[in-house]
Amino acid sequence: MSRFQKLSLTRRQFTQRVSIGLASVWSWKGIGPVGAAEPAPTDAVPPAPSSQQKNVPTAASPNPTQPPRMPDSPWTEIRGFNYQPSYGSNGFELWRKFDPKIIETELARGKKYFPKMNALRWWQSWDAFVRDPKRYAECFDITLELADKVGCRVMPVLFNRWHDSVLDYGGIYIDHFLPGVSWVQRPKMFEPFLEALVGRHADDPRILAWDLCNEPYSYSCPVDKIPEIVSAETAWLEGLSKRCKQLGAKAPITVGIHPGVPLERVEPFCDLLSIHPYWVHTNPRNTKEAYEKSLDRDVQFALKVQKPLLSTECCWGDLDDQRRVESARYTLSELRKRKIGYLVYLLHHSLIADAHRPEFGPVGGPGNLSFIEADGRLRPDHELFNEF
């Protein structure tokens, strides 16, 4: 039976299998399985908790004074960031100009400011791979080494479907997966990329999870208006998931969805459920009550299908440091109440969209989402990450 997928487990069996099934994956840098003799370092991810731990919440008996919570597991202890190197403005440029010295410096800054940082969500670029597959594979290996050096495991984001009108990141467009509409398609066009990354690192303990695609279903119209496109995108994601399993991927498969996309749409082909619960404080129509209810729904669904839940993006940006800090503190406090681990967006200043101050290029609606400034200083009061 594959991890996280049998729906008839008891609550205790679910917690036990999540904990034990992941214990071996976390056994690096001295972090052993449950009951290991040597304690883990204080800045590392703790070992998986015992399935006998008290007060594990259940969907059947919620505490009316508390929101629903995820059971203790390694996923609830994730404290990390998305990372985009500073020197490029889109995925293709970041990987074609790959600079390990800059990356090493920026990750070291992150670990200095945020000692508990234990994971990185690292976006890939199929476009850059196509240009030079061998070099790309070598660069990917280096990223795992550099992340390991600062005590972080990596969630590679294989493809991207989020696009921006101000400063686009690149990635996958409808042309790539809607059958018969574009000459850019060819049989097994993504196969070499999957083999080079997933196949070569199928059992690599430095891999936290494989994120198939960032924010698919990014449409500006209701999905019932474009059923053919939605079905094609789902089939594409299902195919990626199946192929990663065929390549022997041991780390969980996930898909990071943006707010508004129901988890039900991606759950069938995911081992790990990934959400992007941005509290968009700049939108006056948003309410904290609605935001908190949306988090509760996600937790309740994860408990129902007995799969772990992780926020793989969070903490809306702002050009005003204090407004951003207030928004991020609220976001992280609500995630912690529900025992949801998180990968905050974004560790370091970058030239990509919404990751810099206006003097470095175009800025969109989210403002500046980075935690570390271009000159290496910590953004004012952004040590708030260490409060949680």
Describe the protein in words.
With 388 residues, this protein is an alpha/beta fold. It has a single domain, classed as TIM Barrel (Alpha-Beta Barrel). The protein has helices at 11-23, 91-96, 100-113, 126-131, 133-149, 174-177, 191-199, 227-246, 263-266, 288-305, 321-337; strands at 79-83, 119-123, 153-160, 210-214, 253-257, 273-275, 309-311, 341-344. It has an 8-stranded parallel β-barrel with strand order 1-2-3-4-5-6-7-8, surrounded by 4 helices. β6, α10 and β7 form a beta-alpha-beta unit. α3 (100-113) runs parallel beside α5 (133-149). The longest helix is centred in the middle third of the chain and has 20 residues, at 227-246.
Keywords, separated by commas or semicolons:
single chain; 388 residues; alpha/beta; 11 helices; 8 strands
Write the layout of secondary structure elements.
Elements: H1 11-23, E1 79-83, H2 91-96, H3 100-113, E2 119-123, H4 126-131, H5 133-149, E3 153-160, H6 174-177, H7 191-199, E4 210-214, H8 227-246, E5 253-257, H9 263-266, E6 273-275, H10 288-305, E7 309-311, H11 321-337, E8 341-344
Parallel strand pairs: 1-2, 1-8, 2-3, 3-4, 4-5, 5-6, 6-7, 7-8
Helix pairs in contact: 3-5
